[in-house]
């Protein structure tokens, strides 16, 4: 399949402005259309390694990011997120249009993909062993995830672990890594070759930027992994790196709390989590130093 | 009249238990709630998941199997735990006269 980076800027712009850009994102097939320049910039910058789809391919999520048909098109401009022609959200400021695509796509997957138990977690992999890092916003999971990916771990997701109902394995959905506020500077300093998309200020989450996922992770987007470890990270300024065991029962409860569709899946969700906890080593992690944390993680698979 | 309390999983057959060492995760299929218990609570469910038993029988078995601090009122503790689990819908309790 043709990669997006094989298209010229003009071709990408034309597709987004016309019939839509068709991309394979993990297991999902997405059509995105948008006349908004920052969306074009975002997609061109961050999705270059993703495969494009043909006009006949099935589309799971048909998304449009558009200005509203009102004065908001011109004054204090806004952007709408549309799925299959419907607007599930209130509009956001025009400058946030690209981030709106990412947040909206998260919502599409979390709300429609009950073939997976979906856990709010970053997932990385090495040697076939997936490591889940669930965490509430601000816990530092995305920052740690971006740093680990920069040091050779495969990115499965920085946002959601897709645990298959069918086989219990974790399926990748490598996408741009979302970083907020100080994390942007931290990762810029940590890995100066990191590619960032447009940075957006004054969102409800503060300043937000996305990091381009590694090409190797995108290429392996159809290769699932077995969950081997669950780590609940917590960034704490000035702290030493401290890994503590977490019991499997408590881990199961915390994973259930961090799941988007645990209640929907009922007993199936419980059994999936129980199996996952059975096979995984479970920890809490407090950290402040990325290099120390990475050394620790590398030791997990040594 | 002398009686004993018989304990069993609810007749609705909606409780799923998974044991992790001294912990037990339980899923209640009717209300969708998940619980995690440990210690003696886990031992209670290990016993009743095989077959219903009585509070008196549990007391006798645990007294034989485990060591407790001096003065620890095991029977009262078991009564308290089982009452809590009953309130959560995790087990059924029935008073029956002693034969």
Characterise the protein shown here.
The complex is a heterodimer of chains A (302) and B (99). The radius of gyration of chain A is 19 Å and the shape is globular. With 302 residues, chain A is of the alpha+beta class. In chain A, 45% of the residues are buried. Chain A is built from 10 helices and 16 strands. In chain A, helix 4 (141-150) runs parallel beside helix 5 (182-190). Chain A has helices at residues 9-17, 37-46, 97-112, 141-150, 182-190, 215-219, 248-257, 262-265, 267-279, 290-300; strands spanning 21-25, 28-33, 61-66, 78-83, 92-93, 116-126, 129-134, 154-157, 160-164, 170-171, 177-180, 200-203, 206-211, 226-235, 242-245, 281-287. In chain B, the strands form 2 sheets. A 3-stranded antiparallel sheet of chain B has the order 5-1-6. A 3-stranded antiparallel sheet of chain B has the order 2-3-4, with helices on one face. Chain B has helices at residues 40-50, 55-65, 74-87; strands spanning 3-8, 15-20, 23-28, 34-38, 53-54, 92-97. Chain B has 99 residues and is an alpha+beta fold. Chain B starts with a strand and ends with a strand. Helix content of chain B is 36%, strand content 31%. Chain B contains 3 helices and 6 strands; from the N terminus they run ββββαβααβ. In chain B, helix 2 (55-65) crosses helix 3. The chains are: A alpha+beta (302), B alpha+beta (99). Chains A and B meet through helix 7 and helix 9 of A and strand 2, strand 3 and strand 4 of B.
What's the helix and strand layout?
The complex is a heterodimer of chains A (302) and B (99).
Chain A: H1 9-17, E1 21-25, E2 28-33, H2 37-46, E3 61-66, E4 78-83, E5 92-93, H3 97-112, E6 116-126, E7 129-134, H4 141-150, E8 154-157, E9 160-164, E10 170-171, E11 177-180, H5 182-190, E12 200-203, E13 206-211, H6 215-219, E14 226-235, E15 242-245, H7 248-257, H8 262-265, H9 267-279, E16 281-287, H10 290-300
Parallel strand pairs in A: 2-3, 7-14, 14-16
Antiparallel strand pairs in A: 1-2, 3-4, 4-5, 6-7, 6-8, 6-9, 9-10, 11-13, 12-13, 15-16
Chain B: E1 3-8, E2 15-20, E3 23-28, E4 34-38, H1 40-50, E5 53-54, H2 55-65, H3 74-87, E6 92-97
Antiparallel strand pairs in B: 1-5, 1-6, 2-3, 3-4
